[in-house]
Design goal:
It is a single chain. The chain is about 20% helix and about 15% strand. It has about 200 residues and is an alpha+beta fold. Strand 2 and strand 3 form a beta hairpin. The C terminus is likely disordered.
Amino acid sequence: MTAALIYASLERNTASVGLASVLCTSVTATNKEIASVIRHQDPASSGAAAINKQATLGLAVLIAGVGGDPQEALKSGTFAPGTIGDPTAKGNSCDDANDPVGCIFTQNLLVEDATAAEISAAVGSGGTGSGTATSTTQTDTGCDGGDDEEVDDGATVTSTATASVVTVTVQPTDCAVPSSSAALIATSVVRLLQVQQD
């Protein structure tokens, strides 16, 4: 269960450094803990430091709620911010298919978004503490008709994070895209700490 929660919180790659990913809205998680997870964002995207910290602290609370070690939430972090405009779109990431552990760990590239003390405090209070609202707007001007889980097809994504909620709003432009992309016009709100102990 801990591994599933961590996986749900991992950053999803996008087509350029600093471009935030968009939550999938076509499928709703059956498990209430998974549905409560906040996804990490590209560390170079606007507001990512606050979003990623809240994601880690909220994840720690969820992990503790299923009986896991909340400090494991630190493993959900991502890489150091890359350079906006990097033509390779690689940033500071790594890719080694032959690394059984994961190169982000073996090459010490993981950036932890919170401290062990902050996680302990969040779990102890049953929440993620206070946080400053941050907002970011990203636009991909391409019309590649690609995966709707990324900002593509000229879409603009605006995400706002506070201590207890992340709201992501996506609005495509007039690119010629498949009709299925109409589902991309959505606002998804992921709330932390919705888990009730039954």
